[in-house]
Write a structure and sequence with these properties.
The chain has 199 residues and is mainly alpha-helical. Helices cover 50% and strands 12% of the residues. The chain is built from eight helices and three strands. The longest helix has 31 residues. The two termini are 31 Å apart. The structure holds manganese (III) ion.
Length: 199
Amino acid sequence: MTGKVTLPKLDYAYDALEPYISGQINEIHHKNHHQTYVNGYNTAIEQHSEAQKNADVLKTIELQQAIKFHGGGVRNHNIFWKSLAPVSQGGGKFTDGPFAKAVEKEYGSFDKLIALTNTKLASIQGSGWAWIVKDNDNHSIEVVTTANQDTVGSQFTPLLAIDAWEHAYYLQYQNVKVDYFKAIWHVINWAEAEKRYGN
Ligand code: MN3
């Protein structure tokens, strides 16, 4: 079947984000969790296409949740891996392009944007994501959260995605997720945000 989504290769080794995110977490997160969303999405789309051929209205309705969940999982993780970089490849390093200037203008500093994002991350109940996005109408930079594998809509250009599911940190940080939220900024790929902001 054409149009299948695939698991993207990472731009860095699994252990390249240590000590902030362990190699074990990255390997399981990529090879198992992300792969599961890829498989789930492809299966649901194939079933949807079959149901459509059969004019099975109920089946197409029932498949919508699986498409939303696994499709969100695919897109969110694709953006998540790009949102991270090893320190040796610029992880954690602030930029000074148009995105950086907009951050300064709207928030005062990168540190204030990080503090706001951490507050939003901490407020997520259960599983979800925090996003630094560009509003496509007024071009402002916003911090938004989504529940489960919900993704941000086309109203926003996602600049950075942070995974707040337990599978993203539990093996290393256990219940102290606030330490994961503090640590991740050491490997945030601000250059990626700069690139996405310009597009
Ligand atoms: Mn995840």
